[in-house]
Amino acid sequence: MRAIQIVSLDGPAAVQLNDVPEPKPSADQVLIRVRAAGISFPELLQTRGLYQFKPDMPFTPGSEVAGEVVSAPEGSGLAEGDRVAAMVMLGGFAEYAVAPVDNTFKLPDQLSFAQGAALPLNYLTAHFALVTRAHIQPGDVVLVHGAAGGVGTAAIQTAKAFGSGRVIAVASTEEKRAVAHAAGADDSVPVEGFLAAVQELDGVDGVDIVVDPVGGDRFTDSLRSLRTHGRVLVIGFTDEGQIPEVKVNRLLLNNTGVLGVGWGHYALSRPGFIRHQFEELRPHIESGIIRPPIGSEFALADAGRALTLMDERGALGKIVLTTT
After folding, report:
1. pLDDT digits (tens, 9 = 90+) for 145-159
2. Same domain, 60 and 151
């Protein structure tokens, strides 16, 4: 089968399309004919050896896929031909991949394979951040940084699905802010001067939750944007600046908090948690509130170009690879 491999740590342009053996599922795994694979920030980091998980080279990256079941264990509830989305953890940028039964879900008819491949990492992270960590409440005002990217658009839709009264998107260009509005944001503001812009919005006297997958210099103003009992969710650091530091006196004075969002370790160490998350998301998928926006689709052979687009901050919605 064809698969993308990382053979050196020289960045996105160095990935290769190679012929590799088809994976063999173990007793508790599902073999999937991959139709689409999602691209996320960890894969970009892996091309330079900067991600904490460092498989021996050469290896096939890709943690999330959608496609059709080729084979599944008895009693799994899955059968040959079922449309599924899955967290495969590694090996998704290929024509076939294997995934644990517990991480494989029937894909609702409302979603395409590309949209299915956009679900697992971003939407499960957004659900964990907003529901499990922040305990989002009906009417909460949610501010989302990086709002036009995969995590940002997932956070917008998940916040709306679980009761946010108002979602404010932060994005650098008018084009990106339009993507955020299309995903469901109620308001949008530019990155530069976002705090002042938020404070000028009618009816906003602070925000309850800040979703921050970016980090960098905007972190302090995120804290300043919070109302009492507000919380900043630290999801990642796509900004190339320094990792921000917290002056804890600000938390004490304003009764606010900073919460880490480490979905992967938490979910993978708790059997059944990912399935629980997906079942909580399913009715919102079926209702249409959650509908992953696909910004770009690339053929498998063009994985280097797709990763470069992410590297250059050009993602508008989710970037996916397709194998057909």
Report:
1. 999 988 999 999 999
2. no
Are 213 and 152 in contact by the 8 Å Cβ rule? The answer is: yes
Are 175 and 135 found together in one domain? Answer: yes
Q: Which of 247, 264, 281 is the last residue of a domain?
A: 264
pLDDT tens for each residue of 112-156: 999 999 999 999 999 999 999 999 999 999 999 999 988 999 999
**Is 144 in the same domain as 177?**
yes
- Which of 199-203, 246-250, 292-296 is predicted least confidently? 246-250
Six-digit token string for 157: 């839709």
Q: Do 98 and 161 fall within a single domain?
A: no
Whether the model pTM is above 0.85: yes
Dihedral sign (CA 178, 184, 187, 191) = negative
Other beta carbons within 10 Å of 48: 15
Pairing of strands 29-39, 96-100: antiparallel
279-290 burial, b at 16+ Cβ within 10 Å, e below that, comes to ebbeebbeeeeb
What CATH number corresponds to the domain at position 247? Answer: 3.40.50.720
Mode of pairing for the β-strands spanning 96-100 and 64-71: unpaired
Residue 13 belongs to domain spanning:
2-119+292-322
